[in-house]
């Protein structure tokens, strides 16, 4: 990728992480992750929440409906990019006891990460086992992000994203050790530090997933690796305000208009000009949310000749006119 398109998207969808729970377990143990994810979305107000679990001691299994269980070892991270309900357990097939998640709401303003203990299906919020007696210890949290106007990354990720410790970069182990230390003994600034560590693990997981994709793979992430489509996407991201035509875009990446059109459909499921329109709306949303420029100025900055044309396109994709959306975003924040 000559242009860092992944960073472009990550920088516009307000990626933000948090470590919420320090979970100690003694076998047999099993915990469900569905209700907690829903609570996290309600508490954070995020459009989308990705649950993740880091195994800092011991091992375990992760499972979602319709897929085989995934074996996890010490140092592994598992994420659920599509927001699936999931089960973490000491052995495959163990059913978690029904959990009452009212305590999550009640404890949302308490210092995080909160300790939780699991044993034989018994959940004890606020309690933790001594490290030496726990069979498995997990750090559990969430990555929140925006889906609208345009976030092509989330749909391109699998339902379960397993990041094994084996094969990780050398910095990952040391950062994981730091996360464990901050979780066991929180100090001033620990919340922010753990949030940034979460985001780093997510970006690393996405990069490793891209590297693992087979050559016949399709989707937005696979498109970034393609010689022609990846270059075309990079051009659109770098110069969204340019008056692009598919002919000019094809000329710059070395494909005919028909060949470029077909390759975009094959990888992304939409033609180049539709992709450009969606990206312009995403860039426009960032300018609306983070700055004070007028809607007319923003329209020009993202490639629209008139404020009215930009406003119509924005409302069609987001559901609100630009000015109303900006007010709503600032009230919610």
Description:
GO terms for molecular function: DNA-binding transcription factor activity; sequence-specific DNA binding. This is AraC family transcriptional regulator. Keywords: DNA-binding, Transcription, Transcription regulation. It is a single chain. By secondary structure, this protein is α+β, with helices and mostly antiparallel strands. It folds into two domains: 208 residues, no CATH class; 112 residues, Arc Repressor Mutant, subunit A, CATH 1.10.10. The strands form two sheets. A seven-stranded mixed beta sheet has the order 9-8-1-10-3-6-11. It has a four-stranded antiparallel beta sheet with strand order 2-7-4-5. Helix 11 crosses helix 13. The two termini are 34 Å apart. The model has no long low-confidence stretch (mean pLDDT 86).
> What distance separates the N and C termini?
34 Å
Give the low-pLDDT segments: none
Compute the number of structural domains: 2
Largest sheet: 7 strands, mixed
Number of helices: 14
Rg measurement, Å: 22 Å
Q: How many runs of DSSP E, i.e. beta strands?
A: 11
